[in-house]
Amino acid sequence: MSNVLPKEAKKAVRGMYRSRFIVAGSLVALFAAGFSALSLLPSYLALHAAEEVTPQSGVSKSGANSADRAAIASIQTMLKALSPLVGTPPTAVIIQALSLRPSNITVDHIAYSADNSGSIVLTGSAATREAINKYRQTLSGDAHWKGVSVPIGDLTGEPGARFSITLSGPF
């Protein structure tokens, strides 16, 4: 079977397909360039955000500094006044609770509740009932928590059983 198109028509069709290929390739290159620019934008912004801004010649540097210093002093005063209301961060309390954990106790789930009387529930398993009781006593001796409670069923269960300990306090 032979092609019935004349040579001039073949050239026109080839030119049309060539121009389509060039346009499609250009669009792919533009998309790749845009994607590269977007992926590099956070790095660029991070580098240029750390640069110092040079003051303009018409702005009084000492006036801006005294206003800034007054604002900083008032914010620091507010933070000192509000600091008793803010408790220990939950992550610090969780790290403290896990650092007191004996080696024969495994904690596999931690639940945090941020209500008025904050609570953290540690759930896991222990080799013996005595290990659970020892962990409870160790936690009770720490000043981070107002209360440490273990359900009585967890202390009377069989060895290797699961347990939960509830820690309450201002966090």
In brief:
The protein folds into two domains: about 10-50; about 90-170, 2-Layer Sandwich (Gyrase A, domain 2), CATH 3.30.1360. Helices cover about 55% and strands about 15% of the residues. It has helices spanning about 5-50, 60-80, 90-100, 130-140, 150-155, and strands at about 105-115, 120-125, 145-150, 160-170.
Molecular structure report:
This protein has 171 residues and is an alpha+beta fold. The protein folds into two domains: 8-48; 90-169, General secretion pathway protein M, EpsM (Gyrase A, domain 2, 2-Layer Sandwich), CATH 3.30.1360.100. The protein contains five helices and four strands, in the order H-H-H-E-E-H-E-H-E. It has a four-stranded antiparallel sheet, with helices on one face. 8% of the residues are buried.
Could you list some keywords that capture this structure?
171 residues; alpha+beta; Gyrase A, domain 2; 5 helices; 54% helix; 17% strand; elongated
Overall geometric form? elongated
CATH topology of the largest domain: Gyrase A, domain 2
Strand order of the largest sheet: 1-2-4-3
The major β-sheet equals:
4 strands, antiparallel
Helix content: 40-55%
Q: What is the CATH architecture term of the largest domain?
A: 2-Layer Sandwich
**Secondary-structure element order, as H and E?**
HHHEEHEHE
Gyration radius (Cα, Å) is 34 Å
Q: What percent strand? A: 15-25%
| Fourth-tier CATH superfamily name of the largest domain | General secretion pathway protein M, EpsM
Treating each run of at least 4 consecutive H or I residues as one helix, how many helices? Answer: 5
Beta strand count: 4
How many domains comprise the coordinates?
2
Please mark out the parts with pLDDT under 50 across 5 or more consecutive residues, or reply none.
none
CATH class of the largest domain: Alpha Beta
Structural class comes to alpha+beta
Mean pLDDT: 82
N/C terminus separation: 85 Å
